[in-house]
Amino acid sequence: MPRCHARSFAVSLLASPFMATVPAVPTAPLTAFSALATLTTFAALPSAAHAQAARPVPIPPQTLRGEMLFGMPPEVKLNDQATRLSPATRIRGQSNTLVMSATLSGQTWKVNYTLDPYTGLVQDVWLLTADEAARRWPTTREEATTWSFDPISQSWSKP
């Protein structure tokens, strides 16, 4: 027995505040000007989608840079050293979405990562885009303590 009837759902959807923001369907026939306006609006969509492709949440400055070869989970090679992913590892893709480690088996990535301070296992991983990988980032804790970080430009500079 359904608890939500389709008709009552449709009525509540139409009465919702969301529907108040949806523009009405035009009843006039399309003119050359309106067709051109519609075409230019849709032509601008791919560039807007590309603008949103940047990482929505910046990578924290506590991370270190390295190269990671993903093996059979939880095995990885971090900077040519065999290590493991912790059971609670979060791997974020290039658009900050979560990625499962099994889908990365056999792949090598430039990454930013954090280690669990108690176990030494890899805790967080960010797969870097080409632009992010080109930026200067510390690879050791010593570099991170001596370099300075600019949170606005998300970049590091040597003293």
Describe this structure in words.
By secondary structure, the chain is α+β, with helices and mostly antiparallel strands. The protein is built from six helices and seven strands, in the order H-H-H-H-E-E-E-E-E-H-H-E-E. It has helices spanning 6-14, 17-20, 32-43, 45-51, 130-134, 141-146, and strands spanning 64-70, 75-78, 81-92, 108-115, 122-127, 148-150, 155-157. Strands 1-2-3-5-4 form a five-stranded mixed barrel. A hairpin with a 2-residue loop joins strand 2 and strand 3 (81-92). It is globular, with a radius of gyration of 24 Å.
Helix and strand arrangement:
Blueprint: H1 6-14, H2 17-20, H3 32-43, H4 45-51, E1 64-70, E2 75-78, E3 81-92, E4 108-115, E5 122-127, H5 130-134, H6 141-146, E6 148-150, E7 155-157
Parallel strand pairs: 3-5
Antiparallel strand pairs: 1-2, 1-4, 2-3, 4-5, 6-7
Short description:
27% of the residues lie in helices and 27% in strands. It is built from 6 helices and 7 strands; from the N terminus they run ααααβββββααββ. It is globular.
Cα shape: globular
Biggest sheet features: 5 strands, mixed, barrel
Q: Widest sheet: strand order?
A: 1-2-3-5-4
* Structural class assignment: alpha+beta
How far is the N terminus from the C terminus? 69 Å
Task: Give the low-pLDDT segments.
Answer: 44-53
Computed over alpha carbons, the radius of gyration is: 24 Å
Q: Give the strand tally.
A: 7
Helix content: 25-40%
Mean pLDDT score: 79
What is the ordering of alpha helices and beta strands?
Answer: HHHHEEEEEHHEE
User: How large is the count of helical segments?
Assistant: 6
Name the beta content range: 25-35%
